[in-house]
Write a structure and sequence with these properties.
Length: 208
Amino acid sequence: MTTIADLKPDPRNVRQHNPRNIGMIVNALQQVGAARSIVLDEDNVILAGNGVIEAAAEAGIERVRIIEADGEEIIAVRRSGLTAEQKQKLALYDNRTAELAEWDTEALADIGEELDLGEFFTGTELAILDQRFVGEGDDPYAEWQGMPEFEQEDQSSYQAIHVHFRCREHVETFARLVEQKLSEKTRAIWYPEAAKIDMKSERFADES
């Protein structure tokens, strides 16, 4: 019998599965059970479904049923015993968990040396994913420096990190650690906390 321990993660997987992503897949497996198939090569390397296997291990699922295929037919998984609510949840879980995974831009850059990523992404999408996918281009901060009667400091951050929380309690714990107020509407903060500019009190005059 094949188990998930026999499977090998894709060493060049371009998708990163953050805790929220894996957590939602675990919830899906626990609430509606396994449904979607994964893809392996002849050596049991996971070509598609790395996040599913990671979550399955966390959810306590071990058994794997392998269906041999040559790509000439669609492999369909027929699930039985689902309630109407579970069927709806399964569909939502399937779509939402895919959205929560993130692209590994370094891995994409490496693969981009071998494959034309234009087959999978538009130029704009590649530029958003990582600056490495566009040309040298103009540096907006460099272009702004030295403008008449105005000097602009580079206000970009040294490093930006996305932090994911499983519940409100964790948000409040983090807020106490950084000594800042975090509301449901908070999308970004500076650490240490940056001074806020009161735009209502600012006055700009034309000195020409």
